[in-house]
């Protein structure tokens, strides 16, 4: 009989209580227990960044954390960003600036960008590229990803100042 542990957390604002095996990685909890499959698994070895989510506001590779370690925290996944049918400015930026091709890396890129823009609302290109250091993309060459984040930074600033 396998041992399970209770966990209580909030995911995209919704309280969740589940019983999970202590060895279950957070990424598999999100994908397989909660069916939030926007968080991708690219490598399973903490290299690619496809699995990035926010844990208490901090960007974390969810393949590096056990679900039981997330007990008591607030998790935000890519599914938590849009406001109904209205895309989050970072999602809009990726769409408008063609910041994706196959889209596999995109959820992780967007969650990493969200942490960056929350900490630094006006990053320069070098700062954006540095923030994306742990997120691999096999398709875009990163150029349009940078443009997408610059687009989002501008839009988010406008929203703050309402102009
Ligand atoms: S799947 Fe987590 S870093 Fe690649
Ligand atoms: S868009 Fe294909 S891996 Fe980034």
- Supply the helix-strand structural class: alpha+beta
What is the tally of beta strands? 5
Which regions are unreliable across 5 or more consecutive residues at pLDDT < 50? none
User: What is the CATH architecture assignment of the largest domain?
Assistant: Roll
Which fold name is given in CATH as the topology of the largest domain?
Ubiquitin-like (UB roll)
Tell me the CATH superfamily of the largest domain: Beta-grasp domain
CATH class of the largest domain: Alpha Beta
Shape: globular
The strand line-up of the biggest sheet is 2-1-5-3-4
Count of individual domains: 2
Proportion of helical residues: 25-40%
Protein name: (2Fe-2S)-binding protein
Organism: Agaribacillus aureus
Domain 2Fe-2S ferredoxin-type: 5-81
Keywords: 2Fe-2S, Iron, Iron-sulfur, Metal-binding, Oxidoreductase
How would you describe this protein?
- This protein has 163 residues and is α+β, with helices and mostly antiparallel strands.
- It has two domains: 5-80, Roll (Ubiquitin-like (UB roll)); 89-161, DNA polymerase, domain 1 (Orthogonal Bundle), CATH 1.10.150.120.
- It is 34% helix and 15% strand.
- It is built from five helices and five strands, in the order E-E-H-E-E-E-H-H-H-H.
- It has helices at residues 26-33, 89-96, 106-119, 125-131, 143-161; strands spanning 5-11, 14-20, 52-55, 58-61, 74-76.
- Strands 2-1-5-3-4 form a five-stranded mixed sheet, covered by helices on one side.
- A hairpin with a 2-residue loop joins strand 3 and strand 4.
- The longest helix is centred in the last third of the chain and has 19 residues, at 143-161.
- The chain is globular and about 50 Å long.
- The mean pLDDT is 96.
- Residues 5-81 form the 2Fe-2S ferredoxin-type domain.
- Pfam families: Fer2, Fer2_2.
